[in-house]
Amino acid sequence: MKIKESVPDRIFLAFVYILMGVIALLCIYPFYYSIIISFNEGQDAMRGGIYLWPRAFTLENYAVVFRDAMIVSAFGVTVLRTVIGTLAALVFNSIFAYALSRRILIGRRFYIYIGMFTMYFWGGIIPLYMLIQSLGLLNSFWVYIIPNLSGFFTILIFMAFYNEMPASILESAKIDGANELVIFFRIVLPMSTAVLATIALFSGVGHWNSWIETHLYIRDMRLQTLSYVLVRMINQGLAEEQLRAGGHLLALGAAGEGTVTGNSMRMATMIVAVTPIMLIYPFLQKYFVKGIMLGAVKE
């Protein structure tokens, strides 16, 4: 039976829709503005007055970005870090969480308490830096991977999913002679698509956007990530320095020479940095809500 809405209810709903529309516009428009500036000639954009579409359309800003060897190298490092880091985190956290979810594990409660403690307390940046240094990870690609292998919040999500699995399936496998490794890789993992996709999204976005490790531990320019390069461009005006550096950029031709500015280059670099995640997210979105809600409701 359809419930008839009263006039106050309709007014309230209209107000909510308008408010949500305004908030969505405020969130989306800055990104849209960055896109149109990245496709507009830099010198022309400095005049202002661009709001809805490029006034002087050009691909020159992106040509400059992709001709910059440092940005191309940083993009490759970021892709490699994201792929390896995400896969490593999925393997490590899923195995660790499966072990903690098994009630037959000796010292299980102690390990969970230690893991919970790490969620609320940590030693700080200086002890962490000393630990990274003692492990020989300074100025190494593996400083992106090894310290980010595990997070206990991720392990809790995996554990919640494993605890929802019917115990009869695992017991049947044991009766058939399967050991824990066979059960995990042949039964548990194939049933864990939703939670794996959710954690892959979390981990992938975290690796792709992170720049603090580069700032703290990396001095080799060949190991810089794209996010760190973008931060430098924003905070230090690196784009202007690159454009002024003689011979650092390839010639763009007489017709377009001098039209690229630091701001237009920053906008183009930002769009290049966020586009891969935006393209991947729709394919994982259908698993996101299901994965994050695993174990949230008990019947």
Quick summary:
The chain contains 14 helices and no strands. The chain has 299 residues and is mainly α. The protein folds into 2 domains: 32 residues; 233 residues, MetI-like (MetI-like fold), CATH 1.10.3720.10.
Give descriptors for this structure.
299 residues, mainly alpha, MetI-like fold, 2 domains, disordered C terminus
Describe, in plain words, how this protein is organized in 3D.
It is a single chain. The protein is built from 14 helices and no strands. By secondary structure, the protein is mainly α. Residues 246-257 and 295-299 have low confidence and may be disordered. The protein has two domains: 7-38; 60-292, MetI-like fold (Orthogonal Bundle), CATH 1.10.3720.10. Helix 1 packs across helix 14 and helix 4 (69-101) packs across helix 7.
Low-confidence stretches: 246-257, 295-299
The top level CATH class name of the largest domain? Mainly Alpha
Query: Architecture of the largest domain, according to CATH?
Result: Orthogonal Bundle
The rough form would be described as globular
Report strand %: under 5%
Q: Please tell me the total number of domains.
A: 2
The helicity comes to: 55-70%
The secondary-structure element order is: HHHHHHHHHHHHHH
Kindly report how far apart the N and C termini lie: 28 Å
Fourth-level CATH superfamily of the largest domain? MetI-like
Q: What is the number of helices?
A: 14
**In angstroms, what is the radius of gyration?**
25 Å
CATH topology of the largest domain: MetI-like fold
The overall average pLDDT, rounded, is 81
Topology, number of strands: 0
